[in-house]
Write a structure and sequence with these properties.
By secondary structure, the protein is an alpha/beta fold. Helix content is 32%, strand content 19%. Strands 12-6-7-11-8-10-9-13-14 form a 9-stranded mixed beta sheet, sandwiched between helices. Strands 15-18-17-16-19-20 form a 6-stranded mixed beta sheet, with helices on both faces.
């Protein structure tokens, strides 16, 4: 046989997952010489020998379990002389850097490391145990490429035992960059006995994790939960829960096989699960039938959960609206009686990811730890695009870099109403730019002039002299779901976009749309441009922003729009209805809006499940979904009128008759969900048929509503349904959609 030589380049999740050691083993197995090295783009391999083709086959089939090869390219090179195969030093960041995907997300503890900390070896009970298949990655990286010297572990010199494991090709810690042990690695400032004792006696504990501090308490202790809510200023928003293991979790929640698999995955997200079995205090998730559960993602959490042997509340350690703490500045003592710190620096703030199963698929609610910074790869037609940066929306803020056919979407930062969160967002922008070597040539932002991200984009475009594209909120939603589903640049389809509020191009482009806010639209178009086919009938938002906080205001607007003034007077006692009506008549602080979110708020108020004032986004709508899910009789949905608008007036008339007749609120809530889904999907199908397309996309925050999504899914059978799985349907996907829409609008991708 003749010698062959190849250079192979891999991109994707190929660093920090044991890829170089695996390649080393495969090359030795096939008696090849050469080298493997990390590059800013991924991994580069040069091999020479007589069994190169067999090596390539093995490489494709036997990649490490946590690896995700997104691009595999090879080219013949001249045979070279080398005695053996080696792992070469990593290549430095260069001017032609191709960013995205070179750094793996943080990976949950693998079974081998879990067995080790429970065994009798030298890492028994060690909270920072990891290997090439698990442990911190993105949260500890300080520079690119991913090597120990470029992580928070750089200051921890390996002991002889760890150094031997790191250098041993047959050890699972071969070139595991965060390798550590009790002799040479990070240390906790408190014992597990002290931490468990504090939790079991009702105290609050601030615990430093992978990407932030968490605030913990005993989830069976009502008094501790109440105290946690008081200190965080979080009166009703659901709290996440940590279970020791799947056995414990099944005592408190319904868990199917798909959910169990997701909980135990390397991403280890919080998963929303139906309550079942032993009850926990209602204060964990007031008014809801589901709780967010997670399993331990690190040895620290595994050992603590086993020691306490009770479910724990595990939420971010911050005041409501503030960024989660990443270091102990002293403020944590205001939240917790015990602050558990360690001496490994958190290089990057990451909250926990949240997911739920809807319509047969796992769908993200929040994308952060365990998922970021996985790149999103686009069709080949996008490959030649210059770099673009999109700054997203005000709520569930993310930013997105687009470069060479791939998008790098940041972790979610929360709502930018707080200046400290704006600072954290801005710092992260520069962090990504430095880490991945981005130099954007185009900026994108929302049309809303008062978003913090819009103001930031305006400063950046002025300081850096970059063109700025302003993208309609719902246009970005549609572009995001198209990009996630690998739609081609010239594809056109129908989109259903339902959320709380947004400014669309129609708000400025047409006289009839001027001043109107969006929130419940049927769109037609693609990446470069969209048009509104129809929408929910616009009604005023009495009091402007106050209508987003107080559901009764939306009920007034809806009932008055349906000519049901007397019923409004009866259902909304003790409120200044007449003054608000006068304001709506003359348009004072009462902008028109087609918001689906505000329609659900109004329904929740009518059925008595809405709070007087919402303490978190979508609180009323989530309670309404819970109520509807309890319906026993599920007869046909209420009618809505389809003409110029999708008008809910007929629904309100029939709904109020049922309510007066004593019908069960749960069944009324279910019929409202079904009627709205049927009407909106009917309008979408008519639009698709009229334009000769078969694809219909779903996006917007209302698609977090599992019941509503599944009702839409049934209505759209026979059409090609595009929905989110990789990204959240809410505003966490906006930056991705803005980036795609901006480059297409800017004619960087030819669009028909």
């Amino acid at each position: 046989m003749n010698k062959q030589a190849l250079e192979i380049n891999l991109t994707g999740r190929v660093q920090g997952v044991g890829f170089r050691p695996r390649i080393w083993h495969l090359a030795r197995e096939h008696q090849l010489s050469g080298e493997v090295t990390n590059t800013p783009q991924g991994v580069r391999i040069r091999v020479c020998g007589e069994r190169v083709e067999a090596f390539v086959t093995a490489l494709r089939e036997r990649a490490p379990s946590q690896a995700r090869i997104l691009e595999f390219t090879s080219r013949p090179i001249a045979p070279f002389a080398a005695r053996e195969f080696s792992i070469a030093p990593s290549a430095a960041l260069g001017a032609d850097n191709n960013p995205g995907g070179a750094i793996a997300p943080d990976l949950a503890t693998c079974p081998a490391c879990l067995a080790e900390i429970r065994g009798d070896g030298r890492r028994r009970g060690y909270a920072f145990t990891n290997c090439a298949d698990c442990g911190p990655r993105f949260s500890i990286v300080t520079d690119n490429p991913y090597d120990r010297v470029n992580t928070s572990m750089a200051n921890f010199a390996m002991c002889e035992d760890c150094a031997r494991e790191y250098a041993d090709p047959v050890d699972r810690r071969f070139h595991a960059q965060p390798i550590a042990c009790p002799v040479c690695g990070p240390q906790l400032n408190h014992s597990f006995a002290d931490i468990a004792d504090a939790l079991l006696t009702g105290k609050l504990v601030a615990l430093k994790g992978l990407g932030c501090f968490h605030l913990l308490c005993d989830a069976t202790n009502q008094q501790a939960i109440t105290e946690l809510r008081n200190r965080k200023h979080r009166p009703a928003k659901p709290l996440a829960l940590l279970a020791r293991d799947l056995t414990m979790l099944c005592d408190y929640a319904e868990v199917n096989q798909d959910e169990a698999t997701l909980l135990a995955s390397s991403a280890a997200p919080i998963v929303l699960l139906a309550k079942a079995g032993q009850p926990l205090p209602n204060a964990i998730a007031p008014g809801l039938d589901r709780c967010g559960w997670m399993l331990p993602a690190t040895p620290l959490h595994h050992m603590l959960a086993a020691r306490v042997n009770r479910p724990l509340v595990m939420t971010s350690a911050n005041l409501s609206g503030e960024p989660p703490a990443t270091n102990n500045t002293g403020k944590l003592t205001e939240l917790a009686e015990l602050v558990v710190d360690h001496n490994r620096v958190i290089a990057r703030r990451l909250d926990d990811s949240v997911a739920q199963f809807i319509g047969g698929d796992a769908r993200l609610v929040r994308r952060a730890r365990g998922y970021a910074p996985e790149p999103i790869f686009l069709p080949p037609a996008f490959a030649d695009l210059p770099q673009a940066l999109a700054l997203g929306a005000q709520l569930k803020a993310t930013f997105c870099y687009l470069h060479r056919g791939r998008a790098l979407l940041s972790q979610e930062f929360g709502d930018l109403d707080n200046p400290n969160l704006v600072d954290a967002f801005t710092e992260a922008l520069e962090d990504y730019r430095t880490l991945f070597g981005f130099s954007p040539t185009l900026l994108a932002c929302d049309l809303h002039p008062d978003y913090a991200t819009t103001r930031l984009a305006e400063r950046m475009t002025h300081n850096e002299e970059l063109p700025l594209m302003r993208i309609g909120h719902h246009h970005a939603h549609l572009a995001a779901v198209m990009g996630e589903n690998a739609c081609q640049p010239d594809e056109r389809l129908v989109g259903i976009v339902l959320d709380g509020l947004g400014i669309g191009s129609d708000s400025f482009d047409s006289p009839e749309g001027r001043g109107r806010l969006c929130g419940g639209e049927i769109l037609f178009g693609g990446y470069a441009e969209v048009s509104t086919i129809t929408s929910l009938k616009p009604v005023p938002l009495p009091g402007g922003d106050a209508a987003q906080r107080e559901p009764w205001r939306n009920l007034l607007a809806q009932l008055d729009a349906a000519q049901l003034h007397l019923q409004a007077d009866i259902l909304i006692p003790g409120k200044p209805l007449q003054s608000l009506r006068r304001a709506m008549e003359v348009g004072i602080n009462s902008p028109l809006s087609s918001s689906a979110g505000r329609l659900f708020d109004a329904l929740a108020c009518a059925l008595g499940c809405a709070p007087e004032v919402q303490s978190y986004e979508a609180e009323a709508a989530m309670r309404l979904e819970t109520l509807a899910s309890r319906a026993v009789e599920r007869s046909g949905g209420y009618p809505l009128h389809l003409n110029e608008w999708i008008d809910p007036a007929p629904m309100w008339r029939e709904l109020l008759r049922d309510l007066a007749a004593g019908a069960a609120p749960a069944e009324i809530a279910w019929r409202a969900h079904a009627g709205i889904a049927q009407a909106i999907c009917t309008a979408a199908k008519r639009a698709a048929d009229a334009h000769g397309v078969r694809a219909i996309a779903l996006s917007g925050g209302c698609m977090h509503n599992a019941l509503f999504f599944e009702l839409c899914q049934k209505e759209l059978v026979g059409y090609r349904l595009l929905a989110h799985t990789v990204l959240p349907p809410g505003d966490g996907c906006i930056a991705f959609g803005q980036a795609l829409a901006a480059v297409c609008k800017n004619a960087l991708v030819p669009c028909a």
